[in-house]
Amino acid sequence: MAKEKKRIYFVTGNKNKVRIFQEVLNPNYEVVPITPVKPIKELESKSVQKVVVDKLNKAVKQFADKSGFFFVTDVGFYINQLNGKPGGLIKRYTNRKFNGDFAGWCDYLNPDKKRDAHIQVIIAGKTQHSKKVIVDHKVIGSIPKKPKNGVYGFDWDCIFVPKLVAKKYQGKSFAQIPTNIKMEILRKPVIKKFKQRLDNLL
Questions:
Q1: Which pLDDT tens digit goes with each residue over 68-124?
Q2: What burial letters (b/e) apply to 43-75, b meaning 16+ CB within 10 Å?
Q3: What pTM, to 2 d.p., does this model score?
């Protein structure tokens, strides 16, 4: 007899994120996307963990009449030259400084200093009454002196060159790396960590 899937609620409107979670968490979990009745105002903080936890708490309050396990996720972009900023504020900073053009970061940084950066992906989840489950994953890389555009990705993909990749992708930005490979580097490791925690909790 097949084991019954455990239903968990993903608070998001992003169909692509839902798909990758469903792929990794199948067959043990049924990932159900759920949209808040009222838009959740995101906390302004460079700490993506604080942003995610705040988002989770607000989401769970909105669904106080619904039982089950809820989770959220977000990504921060940290630049060493800026002492870890902008983190969870990457989109806001980019809008303010460069009218939304992420390529502006390439010229903004000091060309004579190291251009190290990292991306942090965080997932946080809980039931109405349980303790939070928080997992994270960092991808180390750098920002090129000129954007490396490609046919994949969006937002900051053209300005982030991951360090630990297969030889054929070394020196390429996320915009130049096929989406399925990017997911193997960026999303799947943290979702697998999340699954391990769920297996012990639910």
A1: 999 999 999 999 999 989 999 999 999 999 999 999 999 999 999 999 999 999 999
A2: bebbbbbbbbbbbbebbbebbeeeeebbbbbbb
A3: 0.94
Residues of the chain with pLDDT under 70: 1-3
Q: Are 48 and 87 in contact (CB under 8 A)?
A: yes
Q: Which residues contact 145 (CB under 8 A, 6 or more apart)?
A: 106, 111, 115
What pLDDT, on a 0 to 100 scale, did the predictor assign at position 59? Answer: 93
Picking from 136, 193, 188, 197, the residue whose alpha carbon sits closest to that of residue 6 is: 197
Instruction: Tell me the CA distances in angstroms from 179 to 57, 121, 162, 175, 200, one per residue in order.
Output: 31, 16, 13, 8, 30
Domains located in the chain, CATH noted: 6-201 (3.90.950.10)
Question: What is the C-alpha to C-alpha distance for residues 43 and 138, in angstroms, rounded to an integer?
Answer: 21
What tokens appear for 64 in the block?
């106080």
The rounded distance, in Å, linking the Cα atoms of 193 and 117 is: 23
How many CA atoms are closer than 13 Å to the CA of 157, on its beta-carbon side?
Answer: 17
**Buried-exposed string 117-153: b where 16+ CB fall within 10 A, e elsewhere:** bbbbbbbbbbbeeeeebbbbbebebbbbeebbeeebb
Q: What pLDDT, on the 0 to 100 scale, is given for residue 66?
A: 85
- What percent of the chain has a predicted confidence (pLDDT) above 70? 99
DSSP H/E element including 201: helix 188-201
CA 81 to each of CA 37, 71, 154: distance values in angstroms, whole numbers, following the listed order:
40, 32, 23
